[in-house]
Design brief:
Elements: E1 3-7, E2 10-12, E3 18-25, E4 34-39, E5 46-51, E6 57-59, E7 67-72, E8 77-82, E9 91-97, E10 108-112
Parallel strand pairs: 2-10
Antiparallel strand pairs: 1-3, 3-8, 4-5, 4-9, 5-6, 7-8, 9-10
Length: 114
Amino acid sequence: QVQFVESGGGLVQPGGSLRLSCEASPISFSLYDMSWYRQRSGMERELVATITTEGDTTYLDSVKGRFTISRNNALKTLYLQMNSLRPEDTAVYSCKPSSWTNYWGQGTQVTVSK
């Protein structure tokens, strides 16, 4: 069964950092463009960042310069380094191949608060 397991979320103060991980199994991870999404309470899910198979990246405007998406194909793992976190970054963060429409994993909760 294909699955993506997100981890690394938690409670952090404004200005702090977190690194999210997304482990994939048992797919050919390196063949997929991968994305991070987030869903804030009461809001639609939004695309946060994408990394292509060639390593090109794109970001939601509000996270540019603060978040960095990366991947390790040998480990079949996707990462999201989040710096200078703000309360409005509080959300459940999920990952999946960019082209998949019907899959959503459990996600990992990120809470930015004093």
